[in-house]
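Good day; I would like, with your permission, to put a structural problem before you. What I wish to show you is a protein chain and, alongside it, a tokenised description of its three-dimensional fold. Please examine both parts with care and let me know of anything in them that strikes you as inconsistent. Thank you for your consideration; the sequence and its tokens are set out here:

***
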Amino acid sequence: MHSKRPIIQVVKGSTIGSLFFLIGVLASAGVGQNQPPSAGDAVIRVETSLVSIPVSAADREGRFLSGVQQGQFRVFENGKEQPIAYFGGNDTPIVVALVLDMSDSTRFKLADIQGSAIRFIKQLQPNDRALVMAFDKRVHLLSDVTGDRNALVNAVRKIQVGGGTSVYNAVDTVLRQYFAPIRGRKAVVLFTDGVDTTSASATYDSTIRLATESDSMFYAIKFDTYTDVTEEARKRSLAEGQVSTSIGGQPSGVVYERAGRYLSQLPEVTGGRLYTAGSNDHLSNAFSQIIGELRSQYLLAFYPQDQTKSGRRKIVVKIDIPGAKVRARKYYYFAPVKDAKP
């Protein structure tokens, strides 16, 4: 007599569906990894909308804390405490996406951007992995996820300046195509001035929302290109008999104000940080801080108790250690499974 084995079908909401939940269901159901389904197998339909939150904790002096236990964290959604359904410690490897601006607006800083990225790669630990992506008008994957430091460095060195700037497309691509299938601790380090002139498939607002929904932290390394770019635009316009410092038909001041706001908001909604590129020593210290924070990162997850209302929800993570502080994303977007696309 054939014994029916369950097949799990996970129906995801617009929040982050968790692989950890699926593993638990499979284990409790006794499903083996190498057992193909047969015609008599039963189907279990699981509706899940697990929300994942990367969290780092530090003491009064800013030293990152290791060994924090699940019971020392508390998670609140719109002011109501939520039971923690999953807790991951800070002993798992890190996956980092290095996203480098190689557009015409950063050509004055290209050598600095390359050197900064290489210094960051050299600070990664042996078990960490990274990918290298660059963008001008288009988005270019220069190295897929790997732990090979030489391959990553060589990828960075191949970068050449191109025309146009599609920072929004780059953010969208790294989150949707490369980070969505990866579980665990991951971060995007974005080297750019933040100016976007040619994105076609993504926008400021769409990428901020996508970042808010993701379980990836963003660290922005901001390079100041305003003086170089506007001075060149001024000289060009004078040569043409005009006086203008516009970029893409918009006043340069407006363009750079929006760029700065974007590079502040990406880290804010994901729990990361914004750094301004300065001296090599300044950046090396920043990279050490980023890697230290990533290495001390924990992963919390919860099932929202309110499964009915769509929209943005506020998250607050607290820690029961005197004087300690936590960094985590502040919001996420929720849509009931019945509202989500299959």
User: Anything to note?
Assistant: The chain has two domains: 6-90+296-339, 94-295. The domain at 6-90+296-339 is CATH 2.60.40 (Immunoglobulin-like). The chain has a mean pLDDT of 79.
